[in-house]
Amino acid sequence: MERAVVLVSGGLDSATALAVARRDGFECHALSVDYGQRHRFELKAAAAVAEHLGAAEHRVVSVDLRAIGGSALTDEIDVPESGLGEGIPVTYVPARNLTFLSIALGWGEVLRARDLYVGVNAVDYSGYPDCRPEFVGAFERIANIATKAGVEGDVFRVRAPLIDLTKAQIIRLGTDLGVDYALTHSCYNPAPDGGACGRCDSCRIRRAGFDEAGVPDPTRYAS
């Protein structure tokens, strides 16, 4: 069985990407990154999702993006609760997906796993430049000129199976593949007990996705 490294954040999209990788017949090695985010609920969710979906292993790598800040998720900046606006929001984390995929690429080279799965989505995304097809394609090209495996002809593939799907389509796909979305965590600003705020961009997009998909929302909201 061929191996794949799957980035698993603990959120809805990455859980679905892991289920897709499993459906595609890969032995899945789940990778999460403790990047200095303001809470740890998503990392706990990632561990639960990896176990639930039968990952061969789940590894957490620490990279302190809080040291550079610049985001409401890593700095002393309020998480917006006024709904989606124009432009790139303050919840964008500089270099996050670039860093995550670089770590996944390194682990993939060690594991001889040439397929990297990432749950980025360019339809329902909140304006993040590192969730766009241009970024995914550019990283794949870099992966094949910046690694020993790549230059020796062992080609890496960056798979973003959700890139063109709406949130509702992602939820329907994951439901068909057996994802338990009650295990996932998407909220940017959860309560101390982990309850979702229901007001941040991520909560709004998630809730609307379940409504549109016609699937009951299993999210535990704080209020």
What order do the helices and strands come in, and which of them pair?
Blueprint lengths: L2 E5 L4 H12 L3 E8 L6 H12 L4 E6 L33 H16 L3 E3 L15 H11 L4 H4 L5 E3 L7 H10 L24 H13 L10
Parallel strand pairs: 1-2, 1-4, 2-3, 4-5
Helix pairs in contact: 1-6, 6-7
Structure description:
This protein has 223 residues and is of the alpha/beta class. It has one domain: Rossmann fold, CATH 3.40.50. 35% of the residues lie in helices and 11% in strands. It is built from seven helices and five strands. It has a five-stranded parallel sheet with strand order 3-2-1-4-5, sandwiched between helices. Helix 1 crosses helix 6 (167-176) and helix 6 packs across helix 7. The radius of gyration is 17 Å and the shape is globular. The mean pLDDT is 94.
The poorly predicted ranges are none
CATH superfamily: HUPs
Structural class: alpha/beta
CATH architecture type: 3-Layer(aba) Sandwich
Give the helix level as a range of percent: 25-40%
Quaternary assembly: single chain
Count of helical regions:
7
